[in-house]
Design brief:
Shape: globular
Helix content: 25-40%
Oligomer: single chain
Radius of gyration: 18 Å
Order of helices and strands: HEHEHHHEHEEE
């Protein structure tokens, strides 16, 4: 009995460790092709909106792959790796419902920059989009933007919901984050659900990148049952 318990605990520790180190430990193609520069929609350009807060958006990658969302990379994200949470983006938020976006044009990123960040955001297209749509509003280069996103992500102890179960409440998803992150509050987590399935968790931050209450609501209420797509 003790041996079985020890084995289970070791497996849990190993899985948690693999999740924590996933920014570096993933299968990356030897040759990476950057996405082309994005042409922003005219009605989404908000270059002069002041920054009032930040938000780190985390995709639940198994659901992104199951649903075939355009942001996911079918090979890197959905075939060659089995991610839990990945970084959708680090977003500067404005003081109300309009947020800084597409603050200046930018050419495609270098292959080296794309490759260096694929274990965090496993999609060349999404990396280019996040830099242009959000990074250009506060950072001088994509390298500086993704360095900050990496730092913020590494500062969080992100749970692997695959170790918990396929059906949870939104409150249990919040609890999984709160147990691992001192200073985080329920009001600082926005749980995103579509058609009854977990899609993302948004971690809200203040201007110093510390946990803060979300300015735009908290998404799904605690009592809502949520399906958590298992990792493949």
């Amino acid at each position: 009995m003790k041996t079985a318990l020890a084995t289970a605990f070791a497996a849990l520790t190993l899985a948690t460790g693999a999740q924590a180190s996933s920014l570096k430990a993933c299968a990356v193609p030897p040759v990476v092709t950057p996405a082309p520069a994005e042409v922003p929609p005219a009605d989404e350009i908000h270059a002069n909106v002041p920054i009032a807060a930040y938000l780190l958006a985390l995709f639940w990658s198994p659901e992104a792959c199951r649903a075939g969302i355009p942001e996911s990379d079918k090979v890197i994200q959905c075939q060659n790796n089995h991610f839990g949470f990945t970084v959708h983006g680090l977003w500067p938020n404005g003081p109300d419902k309009v947020h800084p976006r597409y603050c200046r044009p930018s050419p495609p990123m270098s292959p080296a920059t794309v490759k260096a960040n694929l274990c965090m955001t496993p999609s060349p297209w999404l990396l280019q989009h996040e830099w242009q749509a959000h990074g250009t509003c506060n950072w001088d280069s994509p390298e500086a933007y993704f360095k900050k996103a990496q730092k913020v992500r590494k500062g969080l102890n992100v749970p692997d919901l695959a170790l918990v179960g396929e059906t949870m409440t939104a409150g249990e998803i919040r609890d999984a984050f709160l147990r691992r992150n001192r200073g985080m509050t329920r009001e600082g987590l926005n749980v995103r659900v579509k058609e009854g399935r977990l899609t993302e968790v948004w971690v809200c931050l203040d201007l110093k990148f510390k946990p803060a209450a979300c300015r735009g609501g908290n998404g799904a209420p605690d009592a809502l049952p949520v399906r958590v797509t298992p990792r493949g």
